[in-house]
Amino acid sequence: MISAPGNGGQPGNRTIFIHDNLPVLEGMNSGMADLIYLDPPFNKNRIFGSPLGEPENGRFEDIWNWSTVKDEHLTHLEIRHPKIAAAIRGAARMGGEPYAAYLTFMGIRLAQMWRVLKESGSIYLHCDHTAGHYLKVMMDAVFGRKNFRNEIVWFYPDTPGRPKRDFPRKHDTIFRYAKKGGWLFNADNVRVPIAPESRERYKYSRTLGGREYLGGKSAVAGKVPEDVWRFPAVKKNSKESCGYPTQKPLALMERIIKASSREGDLVLDPFCGCATTCVAAERLKRKWIGIDLHKRVADLIGERLRNENIGLHKKVCVRDKPPKLTEAVDPRFAGSLFGWGLAREDLGDSGLPAKQKEELKVRLYSEQRGKCGNNHCPYGEVGYDFMELDHIKPRAKGGEDSPGNIQLLCGPCNRRKGDRNWDEFLKEEARREKIAPLIF
């Protein structure tokens, strides 16, 4: 059932990565996944015991401070993803260091999930009251506020815990976002029966607020569920339970997968835990990839598939390293966070050969002493990974793909320049530099 640990190129169906999910996501091709579901750490400020029977590395610390994240991750977000960085700064002012560190951890990964998701894809982020309000702002920064589709409430009333001075907390939140317009939503696949007392009213079609409702058909086909979903939590004595403290019910995952994917589509879970997403995807004839730090998940997925009596003849590929890295011109940058040297197939574009572009970038970076080619750039000396080659005269306006028409800019300056001519861009930058003190 389980294949030996392996490495190589892009992951295929039924692949489990036993690794930190960031380098795995970085190594995956853009636009691979049709659906992403993630149930990440919640910033609970707690240490959880070994959930999968691993005495040494099974403990999980959901405690966040600057020692738990890398400085270069925040720097990368500041330069490449300023909206994410702004959300982190806001969290730092409101919630302090733990929230800022936690959102740095999440932001760097969500940026990669956006890239890995197909244009027609959807992402569902599972959270609770602890940091959900901050994660909503983060998701707006990554996927765009206009692409927010639903705030789904998973209601599980039949669980222990009745505080004396508060209302009992009995729900989690799931934020659903599309990557862009044209997202997939299979309404008919998730219909639920309507209440018996409502069937009489549904016998005839109705128009409410200018919108026509199905009428009699709804009484038979059922309705699309509202954004409050009532599924029982997985209890320890449940047949479904595998001993994982934060295990989610299969019925919850199946509704998500049915709504936002088709048979044969690829479902990705970057925090797959006890592999509920993988099992649900297998049951619904979807392809799947899971990522988790715990070694036990590789055996657990096999056990669960056997218990479910599905996928018995299929092998699960277990990989203990990210997608294979290739050599870069400068070995210092091979396999770095920022994508240099990763074996991704989507990085090439028309223009100069890759080797020549890399050599040109190394030379220009040295000549510019690590500074952006824009003299009005506010960042000063910038790391190599944040630099981008740019056409002085844009190709859209007849610029050539030649070394004489190439310069090196930091990412924000390159995006501000866009398709403008260099002189036009510099005039705007000079004006921007002049009024900056008045704005800030």
Alpha-beta content class: alpha/beta
How many distinct helices?
13
CATH class of the largest domain: Alpha Beta
Tell me the fraction of residues in β-strands, as a range: 15-25%
Whole-angstrom Rg: 25 Å
Measured between the Cα atoms of the first and last residue, the distance is 60 Å
The helix/strand order is: EHEEEHHHEHEEHEEHEHEHEHEHEEHH
Overall helicity: 25-40%
In words, what does this structure look like?
This protein is an alpha/beta fold and 440 residues long. The protein folds into three domains: 15-184 and 227-319, Rossmann fold; 194-223, no CATH class; 348-439, His-Me finger endonuclease fold (3-Layer(aba) Sandwich), CATH 3.40.1800. Helices cover 32% and strands 17% of the residues. The protein has 13 helices and 15 strands. Helix 3 runs antiparallel to helix 5. The protein is globular, with a radius of gyration of 25 Å.
Primary descriptors:
440 residues, alpha/beta, Rossmann fold, His-Me finger endonuclease fold, 3 domains, nine-stranded mixed sheet, two-stranded antiparallel sheet, 13 helices, 32% helix, globular, disordered C terminus
Question: How is the topology of this model organized?
Answer:
Blueprint: E1 15-18, H1 21-27, E2 33-38, E3 46-48, E4 60-62, H2 71-80, H3 82-95, H4 97-116, E5 117-127, H5 132-143, E6 148-155, E7 171-178, H6 196-199, E8 206-208, E9 211-213, H7 216-221, E10 228-230, H8 250-260, E11 266-269, H9 276-283, E12 287-292, H10 296-307, E13 317-319, H11 354-367, E14 387-391, E15 406-410, H12 411-417, H13 422-439
Parallel strand pairs: 1-12, 1-13, 2-5, 2-11, 6-10, 11-12
Antiparallel strand pairs: 3-4, 5-7, 6-7, 8-9, 14-15
